[in-house]
Write a structure and sequence with these properties.
By secondary structure, the protein is an alpha+beta fold. Helices cover about 40% and strands about 10% of the residues. It contains two helices and two strands. Strands 1-2 form a two-stranded antiparallel sheet. It is elongated.
């Protein structure tokens, strides 16, 4: 599979003093990765699978141990399969 990030081969886009800086592929990779993440979560949810994303600690409404609960749930589901 090949994913075209639509960035130029030289990658950098901004000319500063005769040199190109600021790689465009960084932003493209983030956008592509988040699109994959969103589509995967949507497909899992459509199949009735509960999506347990990590929560930014900057969200005041989230419990302090929310991400620990996500890790613990993952360990409970995946660790037995690794044995």
């Amino acid at each position: 599979m090949v994913i075209d990030n639509c960035c130029p081969p030289e990658d950098a886009l901004v000319e500063v003093g005769g040199a190109l800086v600021a790689g465009s592929s960084t932003l493209a990779v983030v956008a592509i990765s988040m699109a994959f993440l969103a589509e995967t979560a949507a497909r899992l949810a459509a199949r009735g699978i509960k999506v347990r994303p990590f929560t930014s600690p900057n969200i005041g409404a989230a419990a302090a141990d929310t991400n620990r609960q996500v890790f613990d749930d993952y360990i409970r589901r995946v660790a037995p399969r690794l044995r």
